[in-house]
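ok so for the tutorial part 2 we go from a plain amino acid sequence to predicted structure tokens. step 1 is just haveing the sequence, like this:
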Amino acid sequence: MILPYLFAPVVRLDLERDGADWPNRHASRMLEAGGVLWHVQLMGEGPPLLLLHGAGASAHSYRDLAPLLASRFRVIAPDLPGHGFSTSPGAHTQSLPGMAKALGTLLRALGAAPEIVVGHSAGAAVLARLELDKAIAPQLIVALNGAFTPFGGVASHVLPSLAKALFLNPFAPRYFAWSADRAAVARLLAGTGSTLDARGVDLYARLMRNPAHVEGALAMMAHWDLHALNRDLPRLATPLVLIVAADDRTVRPQSARNIAARLPTSRVQEIRDLGHLAHEEAPDLHARLIFDLWDAAQRRLCEEPATVTP
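step 2 — the prediction. this is what the tokens look like for a chain of 310 residues:
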């Protein structure tokens, strides 16, 4: 019966109750900063590296990639506000500027100044906003199938309005969670152009069966506006590498090429036979790419002429 479920209280995922077998559980911490109770995973030693997931996911999206990166970096991988085990105090943390501001507060609480930042999909847009707002000053931004630009045409108005209508309906998150059986989640993930293993599908299913997580994802989509970011992108000073998967059905590779044409500090690197969740399908490949990009950035830094102050 769905009716009792629709009227049941919304209970957020709890790390102690629900996270015993969560990926990289040993690295998990709960930390309050900026009104958000954050779930953040910390692992490794070296230059600080911030990892941000996309809308509807959590830090689990880097379950295999994060430990590989931790062999050379101090990895910081939070759940975004309202996602996974992180709370959200309200709509002000769900907009792009608000989420960036909240993350800036988290980084200050951790005493972390990321030297390299990596973001998937909407997470890449948050990183760009953080840099534009001077909350971070990394040496390199890596976007994994980054979602930087608004949908075109009618979709740019219809989709946010639809997400807002669903977000405002108190029964919508409960209904979505109630209907998120494993088969439905597997179809949703396949629609991105990616093929995940059974464990990957199960983890997304666990998230999507939680009404509070669904509510957080809908809130993010309802308050998401990329028009201002799209206008500001030409001011991005940090080198940006756009890694795109040829089979991505969520963010088309042409979007990255259009951005690169506008940003002299950016370049596109395309990989074949992978979809929107490419970093989950091929974590080893992505670790090698990120290591190579970091090494190249360090070489460029060493080759730059020193500035002499009279």
